[in-house]
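Reply to dn_fold:

You asked what the input looked like. This is it:
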Amino acid sequence: MDDPELEAIRQKRMQELMAAQGGGGGMDPEAQAQKADQQRAQEEQRANMLASVLSPQARERLARIALVKPDKARKVEDMVIGMAQKGKIQERVSEDQLIHWLEQINEQTQTKTKVQICRRRSAFDDEDDD
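and this is what came back:
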């Protein structure tokens, strides 16, 4: 029961799904490869800059943090790279300095939760003054 019209619809839908999954929005394979190369080059440049600014111990700690909380590690990396580009970092960042910055980011991003208990009164909870 091979219906050529049905098969054509399936093929078209499969191509649409592949294009949407790739995030290319219909980009040809060359454009996708070029975009992937650019992203790889940017990540490599970012890693090289971090390697030149951070001490080995600080890089190791940041790598361990990235395993657990990638978003927090990315924030710290962005902060370190920004400071290095502005010239605020004169020497290699030590592990202690990195810990200090992590604590600052924790204080900024920490959310305070407040629990409020409201007890509903019922008809049987009448407080009589006897």
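The CA atoms of residues 1 and 114 lie 64 Å apart.
Hope that clears it up.
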